[in-house]
Design goal:
Elements: H1 3-25, H2 28-55, H3 67-103, E1 107-111, E2 117-120, H4 122-128, H5 140-143, H6 147-155, E3 163-167, E4 170-182, E5 186-193, H7 195-232, H8 239-267, E6 275-278, H9 279-294, E7 300-305, E8 310-313, H10 315-331, E9 338-346, E10 349-356, H11 378-383, H12 390-400, E11 404-410, E12 414-422
Parallel strand pairs: 7-9
Antiparallel strand pairs: 1-2, 1-5, 3-4, 4-5, 6-8, 9-10, 10-12, 11-12
Helix pairs in contact: 1-2, 7-8, 8-12, 9-10, 10-12
The protein binds adenosine-5'-diphosphate.
């Protein structure tokens, strides 16, 4: 029989038997009242036992109870058993997760909504110099006082971005730090030891800088002598070889100068020594140089500039980036083509664009254009006097000005190169 039907019969049986006794003794109402009171007391007593069982932490088996209360106890017990199992499973999972992250060589720090430290693994002690329990609950920027970390966390743009800084615990260790937001307000900070990689990068850039520097003097001497020989006009036979040698030496000097500029851009600290740069004045000069470069090809070059729009930065670097883009447009646009230079601002910041009606670039080349020595057509680039380093320089200069290079191009239609500088 279903428990509720059983309970109903129990209640009915009690009431009817009491009514019957009441009827026999002539106190029907009193015995009916007594039946109700007994039934209610029994329920209250079982409710009390349930409450007692709960208050004991529900650790023990539920008390035996007849009727519907037996079922109630049993269901609670089952529910409690299930919850306990689930809790144990979750705790096991959490323990395993903590054990695995603790064993990781990378530092892992769980940060709360205000970037306060909630948990960290063993590697964080070694890499970031955190200490448990002293540092728990403290904002991470109070403990690791690097402006780059502060800036990274306040701008909160964590997608595919990472910052590098020296370990606060070990000055010879270089760290790459990234943050992954999760669960709405939580953040996972990961720090990886990249000392080895950093050293290799440094060796590479030092090597390039040294080689370029060493080549500079011999090249200057060679081109000086070539000029003298050309001026002397000793023999008609040597005219062409001398011309070719002069052109190739000039190319090598351009490459060396670009490589030196790139290593300078890489090694110098960001954002130091900037000034307000008058871009309209700078563009006037670049326009004149582009007209000279265009020469007989007579490109139609137009410049539109928002008056008094300045930018905080390094004038020489910006000049180099802007002129690289403009000279590329001249080089890769057939004679008579149109080149438009635009310097303007909107609510997102300042923008410098160069668009041309040149040959355009196939989409598969676009992601690699800013790599060093990457050219779509090597022969053409060399013929135009390109070094293959122009767009790499542009990218580095923009990085140093918190800018971003955006390229749009369609084969046969032309290209648009846009430098976006965020509002500061
Ligand atoms: P380069 O010295 O060869 O011009 P860059 O780094 O400046 O080197 O440019 C890389 C390559 O991108 C060039 O070789 C060229 O193929 C392509 N490129 C750059 N600007 C343009 C442009 N405005 N139109 C078409 N192709 C371009």
């Amino acid at each position: 029989m279903a428990p509720w039907v059983q309970e109903f019969w129990r209640m009915l049986g009690l009431t009817l038997s009491m009514l019957f006794i009441g009827f026999l003794v002539g106190q029907t109402f009193l015995f009916f009242f007594l039946a109700c009171l007994t039934y209610l007391s029994w329920h209250l007593y079982n409710l009390y036992r349930l409450e007692q069982w709960f208050s004991q932490g529900r650790k023990f088996e539920p008390p035996e109870a007849p009727g519907i209360w037996g079922d109630v106890f049993y269901h609670f017990y089952r529910l409690q058993q299930r919850n306990r199992k689930r809790k144990r499973k979750l705790a096991d999972m959490l323990k395993r997760f903590q054990e695995s992250t603790a064993a990781m060589p990378d530092a892992t720090v769980v940060l709360g909504p205000r970037y306060e430290i909630e948990w960290f693994n063993k590697a964080a002690i070694q890499l970031l110099g955190l200490q448990s329990p002293r540092d728990r609950g403290q904002p991470i920027t109070n403990l690791i006082r690097y402006p780059s970390l502060h800036h990274y966390l306040t701008q909160a743009n964590f997608e595919n971005t990472a910052i590098k800084f020296v370990s606060p615990n070990n000055p010879s260790m270089m760290l790459s730090v990234s943050v992954i937001p999760y669960a709405e307000t939580q953040h996972l900070l990961l720090a990886r030891d990249i000392t080895h990689l950093h050293r290799l990068e440094q060796i590479r850039s030092d090597f390039i800088a040294n080689v370029s520097h060493e080549l500079r003097t011999p090249l200057t001497v060679i081109s000086g002598f070539l000029e003298t020989l050309q001026d002397a006009q000793t023999c008609h036979e040597f005219e062409r070889p001398l011309l070719l040698m002069t052109q190739q030496t000039a190319r090598m000097r351009n490459i060396v100068e670009d490589l030196l500029l790139l290593s300078r851009l890489e090694s110098e600290a960001n954002g130091n020594g900037g000034v307000m740069v008058e871009v309209d004045e700078m563009l006037k000069n670049i326009y004149e140089e582009a007209t000279v470069l265009s020469g007989e090809q007579k490109h139609r070059i137009t410049v539109s500039v928002e008056k008094d729009l300045t930018i905080y930065g390094h004038p020489e670097e910006l000049r180099s980036a802007f002129s690289n883009l403009v000279f590329n447009a001249v080089r890769y646009t057939p004679a008579g083509g149109e080149i438009t230079i635009h310097w303007y601002s909107d609510k997102e910041g300042a923008h410098f664009t160069v668009s041309d009606t040149g040959d355009g670039i196939a989409p598969e080349h676009l992601p690699r254009l800013t790599e060093r020595f990457y050219r779509v057509d090597v022969g053409r680039s060399r013929h135009q006097g390109g070094t293959g380093l122009g767009l790499a320089i542009v990218k580095h200069v923009l990085n140093r000005h918190q800018g971003h290079l955006h390229i749009e191009s369609q084969l046969g239609q032309g290209s648009l190169f846009r430098c976006d500088f965020p509002n500061r």
